[in-house]
What does this fold into?
Amino acid sequence: MVRYVHHELLAAVALVIATAVGVAVAFAVDDTASVGAGEVAWLAGSGLVFFALSAALRSSRLKWVGEVREFEAAVPATGGDPARRSRTLQRGLRFSLFLVPSVVLGLLGFTTALMIALAMVVDWSVKAAVGARWERRNGRRLWLGHDHDEP
It folds into this structure.
């Protein structure tokens, strides 16, 4: 089992690194590509707005977008502390699933598609922040794991 907050943060970090590599490949392939200050400011501003909006929706109790209902309905982990197994292979596979498409998009010159992936990073970061806030307020940990009784 893995903590919910760690899972979301690791996925966000893996996608940020993969996107950065994809953008670096795109700029290495296309010598004339350049990024202006206005584009960076627009991307940062829209990212902050999306972060704030996503945080407001994720921390609500709305049925399809709110995370709090699912956190409160979570079943306690049985058997004491959840087992901590090494998941190096799974983390490497997850990272490669982000890295390979990012490099391909970079080689093809689709930097806009790489920037769209950053919206997923913001959403996963918000999920981690909402989960950490809920854990701190309620004094319980959120765990992700497979229930063998329900396939």
Remarks:
- Residues 1-30+116-151 form one domain.
